[in-house]
What we know:
This protein is an alpha/beta fold.
Amino acid sequence: MSEWSSDTxxxxxxxxxxxxxxxxxxxxxxxxxxxxxxPVWQPIPALVRNSFHEPLPKSQTELADVHAxxxxxxxxFAVGNAHPGFMGWVHGGGTPxxxxxxxxxxxxxxxxxxxxxxxxxxxxxVIRWSCELFGFPDDxxxxxxxxxxxxxxxxxxxxxxxxxxxxxxxxxxxADGAKLVAYTSEAAHGCISxxxxxxxxxxxxxxxxxxxxxxxxxxxxxxxxIEADERSGLTPFMLIGTAGSVDxxxxxxLDALASLAxxxxxxxHIDGAYGALAMLSPKLAPRLCGIEKADSLAFDxxxxxxxxxxxxxxxxxxxxxxxxxxxSPSAYLRREVHGLAAGSPWPxxxxxxxxxxxxxxxxxFTLKTYGQAKLGSMIAGTCTLASYLAGQIDAHPELERLxxxxxxxxxxxxxxxxPDKVNAQIVVALHESGIAAPSxxxxxxxxxxxxxxxxxxxxxxxxxxxxxxxxxxxxxxxxKPTAKTS
Length: 486
Ligand SMILES: *Cc1c(COP(=O)(O)O)cnc(C)c1O
């Protein structure tokens, strides 16, 4: 034992550590409480960026000093999605409850791969709540994971096993899979073609179907594509609908897609990454009619659900098929009826991850603390703000809306010569102003300022500030605004 040193990683003085811990908690709560006084985002000084290029620390640094670096060089230079002026991409705002839950989860340091422990029961509870919310049966399965990109990939793998049988796990798709084709719309998220790529089918095995004027999949074109593939000897196996498209928030006609999938014997998957949680609001839920008929559903708690990153979810109607896609018995994961190795099946039987974080805890805390009614009205509130913004744009001679507003996403532009260039400049200038942070997208070949109101902290005054700054920037960038055509 002469080599053994008594160094643990625990503090030498717990009282001092505790005091430092309380200061850290206070600082991050101050950040959230006073976030409106900060810019949404700010450019990162080279000095700050370079400070993260230092060599591996060889010796100790006081925790208080490391925390000071966090406060000075990390916290002020994050993306800013906790800020009410953040309206870019689709980012959740996080909550103080989620923050505390994540702290507790880190302290417990549970590994959610499996075993006989209540943390796994908490995840199962979250999955059952999700099944209840979306009208999935009691024997449906589910799993929390990083996000919908991963959940969509897992869904493609389950659909593959459902079509080709479990032998595909041994043989690969080369033998029987070569003729399988899947369908989604051109408004679908890029991670769906990536899922086809990663699962070995290849991107060409995904048919990209055009959308209608409301950016929903064109069902007539979809039907024709399926029939054309059938005639040419291919095997349609999967249809992927979108509930809340990433560009404009469009919702495919889920009920009609469910019927078509049933008719044609296709696995019906829904990418509901951000939109599915509209189900929490009684006012919005009817818009998602048909979601309960999906064979699988991917969605994120970290977007509209405001759970701190990351927290994606996959639900599978046929829990057994889900299990058969991933379960991989091995000697060192042997199950028992009693003791710590009981409680099979385990979460690791439903996906590729063995070590898994206790992300279920922050989801559970969020659903339990706020409850469906409050979360639902928060979600509906972001849609009300989007309608307000759309109305303001429509009434303004220098602004033009570029897509219908289905949920909480508004796409518009400042009308001028060279609109693509100017509107891209407006967005960069908005970011650098710290006032608001929308993103951009391209719709029908036109660059749009894209405002996704996801953050529960956003208020009408934040929308007004965005509009005022956009118009002022537009005017300053062009000498002569042109009135909109329509
Ligand atoms: C955000 C999003 C995704 C990707 O989800 P991640 O959680 O970022 O992996 C997929 N589809 C849609 C419609 C999205 O909005």
